[in-house]
């Protein structure tokens, strides 16, 4: 515990985060430029003033589809479609929307930009079809893979939608878990995207009645290899967080125990990776018939992420709404600290309306923990008075600017 704290205070001298943020045609912003301090940033304003949109823009500086899992085409600022004079779609240029930022890490600054461009693809019917493509630039140079971004910035977020994380279907929990892994293993984002792509292709082929066994088998082999790598990375991350949480105080944000519930992850308890790969490929092959009957095919695409309230030995889904929120905060804080130690710089925290349902004690405890972590935390709220204890240390931004 002391060793962790000592290492942590060394890392804390490394300041990281976004120092300038520029949005162009992003959601409700035609243009916005913000200078930000490497400190807690309290974004306040009435409902609909664009607080969450700013957090979403920052989340686009990391791989993936941002904190709303939005469709790229929904983000482009819409001009009021009900006013014909102002609705001029032909004026939409090749760049659809853009977010750019100066990102600081240990005194070094890089410029990160991400934008969505409209491209045209020739189709067989000889009619060009337009599609949106996200491009990413670091210091002005286009990069091939979004995972490069992880070297300069990472983000951990908590949104009101996540209040239902433990109760609904497993998909959002799986994405949450995979995001926890990305920060430690930059390849994980690529692997999960590739797996999904292959799975869709395989499923579609089978639905269409494809009988090309060698094609199907090669897809299954690739899926099995990726799947086992995904399962192994998830296992490692869970083990790391569980070990770390044991050294953390069990206070208003209670300690949790994390578990994986997935066939491939379970297999790795007792079998080496090569055996798990063979098993997975054979399993997929046997499942070909079931795709025709619309059966769900088990595997890393079905893995669930289980959280327990440690002291109460209670699964999170059976805890009260308030307890569930505290458990989530507990995971987020542990991940932030663990990630800071691992990557040598802190992630940016994006906390959307987090304090709204916390009582005074919990709110103050959270703000204290954030201050101790010395991370750049973007916190939204409709009520600035809830943050009086941060006057003098946090940056307060009130919207609209
Ligand atoms: N593509 C878009 N174009 C223009 N406005 C948008 C777009 N998407 C969302 N908005 C608007 O952005 C506004 C601010 O949203 P949000 O950031 O969620 O507000 P809040 O401050 O309550 O978090 C909303 O009124 C919403 O209608
Ligand atoms: Mg909001």
Attribute tags:
401 residues; alpha/beta; Rossmann fold; six-stranded antiparallel beta sheet; five-stranded parallel beta sheet; 14 strands; 39% helix; binds adenosine-5'-diphosphate; binds magnesium ion
Description:
This protein has a six-stranded antiparallel beta sheet with strand order 2-1-4-5-6-7. A five-stranded parallel beta sheet has the order 8-12-13-3-14, with helices on both faces. Strands 9-10-11 form a three-stranded antiparallel beta sheet. The protein is 39% helix and 22% strand. It has helices at 2-11, 51-59, 72-75, 170-182, 187-207, 213-246, 263-270, 273-292, 321-343, 360-373; strands at residues 16-26, 29-35, 41-44, 95-105, 108-121, 129-138, 141-142, 155-158, 256-261, 304-309, 314-315, 348-351, 377-381, 395-398. The model has no long low-confidence stretch (mean pLDDT 91). The chain contains ten helices and 14 strands. Helix 5 packs antiparallel against helix 6 (213-246) and helix 6 crosses helix 8 (273-292). It has a domain at 1-166 and 347-401: Rossmann fold (3-Layer(aba) Sandwich). It is of the alpha/beta class and 401 residues long. Magnesium ion is lined by residues 51-52, 352, 380.
Secondary structure: elements and pairs:
Layout lengths: L1 H10 L4 E11 L2 E7 L5 E4 L6 H9 L12 H4 L19 E11 L2 E14 L7 E10 L2 E2 L12 E4 L11 H13 L4 H21 L5 H34 L9 E6 L1 H8 L2 H20 L11 E6 L4 E2 L5 H23 L4 E4 L8 H14 L3 E5 L13 E4 L3
Parallel strand pairs: 3-13, 3-14, 8-12, 12-13
Antiparallel strand pairs: 1-2, 1-4, 4-5, 5-6, 6-7, 9-10, 10-11
Bound molecules: adenosine-5'-diphosphate (ADP) and magnesium ion.
The site of adenosine-5'-diphosphate (ADP) has 15 residues, from helix 2 and helix 3.
């Amino acid at each position: 515990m002391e060793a962790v704290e000592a290492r942590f205070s060394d890392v804390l001298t490394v300041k990281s985060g976004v120092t300038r943020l520029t949005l162009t045609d992003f959601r409700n912003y035609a243009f916005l430029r913000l200078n930000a301090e490497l400190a807690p940033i309290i974004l306040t304003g009435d409902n609909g003033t664009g607080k969450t949109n700013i957090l979403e823009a920052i989340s686009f500086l990391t791989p993936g589809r941002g904190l709303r899992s939005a469709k790229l085409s929904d983000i482009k600022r819409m001009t009021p479609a009900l006013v014909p004079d102002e609705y001029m779609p032909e004026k939409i240029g090749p760049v659809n929307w853009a977010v750019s930022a100066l990102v600081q890490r240990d005194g070094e600054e890089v410029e990160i930009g991400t934008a969505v461009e409209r491209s045209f693809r020739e189709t067989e019917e000889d009619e060009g079809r337009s599609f949106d493509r996200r491009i990413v630039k670091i210091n002005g140079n286009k990069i091939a893979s979004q995972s490069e971004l992880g070297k300069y910035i990472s983000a951990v977020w908590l949104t009101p939608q996540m209040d239902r994380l433990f109760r609904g279907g497993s998909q959002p929990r799986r994405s949450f878990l995979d995001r926890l892994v990305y920060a430690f293993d930059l390849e994980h984002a690529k692997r999960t995207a590739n797996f999904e792509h292959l799975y869709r292709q395989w499923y579609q082929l089978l639905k269409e009645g494809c009988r090309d066994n060698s094609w199907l088998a090669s897809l299954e082999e690739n899926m099995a290899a990726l799947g086992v790598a995904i399962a192994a990375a998830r296992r490692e991350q869970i083990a790391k967080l569980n070990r770390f949480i044991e050294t953390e105080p069990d206070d208003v944000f209670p300690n949790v125990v994390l578990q994986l519930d997935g066939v491939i992850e379970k297999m790795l308890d007792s079998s080496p990776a090569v055996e798990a790969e063979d098993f997975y490929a054979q399993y997929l092959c046997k499942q070909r018939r079931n795709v025709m009957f619309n059966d769900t095919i088990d595997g890393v695409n079905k893995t669930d992420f289980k959280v327990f309230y440690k002291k109460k030995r209670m699964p999170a889904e059976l805890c009260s709404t308030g307890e569930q929120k505290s458990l989530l905060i507990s995971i987020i804080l542990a991940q932030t600290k663990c990630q800071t130690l691992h990557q040598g710089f802190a992630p940016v925290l994006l906390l959307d309306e987090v304090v709204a349902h916390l009582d005074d004690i919990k709110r103050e405890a959270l703000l204290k923990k954030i201050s101790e972590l010395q991370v750049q935390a973007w916190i939204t709220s409709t009520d600035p008075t809830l943050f009086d204890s941060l006057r003098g240390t946090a940056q307060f931004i009130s919207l609209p600017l």
